[in-house]
Amino acid sequence: MAIIKDQLIEHIENKLPDSLKTHIYRSCEVGRKLCGIHSVDTEKVEIALLGHDLYRGYSDNEMLNVAEEKEIEISYVEKASPLLLHGVLASITMQEQYKVSDKQIIESIKYHTSGMEEMDEVFMTVFLADKLDPKKIEKNSQLEPINQTAQYSLSDATLMYLNMKISSIIDSGHLVHPDSLDARNSLLLKTRI
Ligand SMILES: [Fe+2]
Ligand SMILES: [Fe+2]
Q1: Distant-in-sequence, close-in-space partners of 83: CB < 8 Å, separation ≥ 6
Q2: Alpha-carbon distance 98 to 91, whole Å?
Q3: Which site in 56, 66, 131, 169 is 20 to 30 Å from 141, CA atoms measured?
Q4: How far apart, in whole angstroms, are the C-alpha atoms of residue 102 and residue 172?
Q5: Which ligand is nearest to the CA of 24?
Q6: Is 117 helix (H, G, I), strand (E, B) or coil?
C-alpha cells in the first residue's frame, strides 16, 4: 500500500496543477482526521483521496475523448455535464495503471462526485473529506454545519451534503445525477430507522 501511495504522490506532483495538488493533500488531511474519529481504514481512505481527482483538471472534451477511448458508457447526464466523468476515469487508471483492485477504494473514487446507493464508511469518509476541504468551507458557508456534523456522524453529514447539493443543482437548472438521488434516498431510509 505504501508503494501505491508513493506512486500516486509522484503522479500528482508531476502531472497535476498546483490548485489540484493542494486540494488533494488538504482532503487527505481531512480524511485522516475523520478516520481517527470514526475508526475507518486510513490506508484505504488515503489511497482513494490521492487518486480521486487525477482527471479533475481535464477539459470537458478531453474527458469525453478519454471516456470514448476507454469504451466507457456515457449516460445522457454525463454527456451534458462531462465533469461527472472524472471519477470514473480516475477509477479506471487506478485499476489499470496502479493495480488497485480493492472494491471500497475503487467505488469511493468512481462515485465521489455523485454518491451512490450503497455507501459504506470508507466511501462516506472519502466523499466528505473531498467536500470538506477547508478552502471549500471558506468559500461556501453552507459546508460549515456539514463539517460539524461529520465530526460525530458520517451518514448524517453525507445526507446533509446531498440534500444541499441536489437543491442547489435544481435551483441552478442543471441535471441531477440519478446516483445522487439513489444515494440520498437510501441514506434517508437508513437514517430514519
Ligand atoms: Fe472530484
Ligand atoms: Fe476533489
Answers
A1: 60, 63, 113
A2: 10
A3: 56
A4: 36
A5: 2
A6: coil
What count of residues does the chain have? Answer: 193
pLDDT of residue 193: 60
- Rounded to the nearest integer, the mean pLDDT of the chain is 96
| Side chain identity at residue 74, one-letter code | I
pLDDT in tens, 43-69: 999 999 999 999 999 999 999 999 999
Distance between CA 53 and CA 50 in Å, rounded? 7
193 CA → ligand 1 middle, Å = 31
Task: Count the helix, strand and coil residues of the chain and give each as a percent rounded to the nearest 5.
Answer: 75, 0, 25
pTM over 0.90: yes
Q: Which ligand is nearest to the CA of 49?
A: 2
Q: Is 139 exposed, middle or buried (0-12, 13-18, 19+ CB in 10 A)?
A: exposed
27, 49 Cβ separation under 8 angstroms? yes
Ligand 2 centroid from CA 39, angstroms: 22
Kindly state the percentage of the chain with pLDDT values over 90.
Answer: 97
Measured on CA atoms in the order 62, 65, 70, 76, is the torsion positive or negative? positive
CATH class of 2-192: mainly alpha
Reported confidence tier of residue 192, pLDDT bands at 50, 70, 90: confident
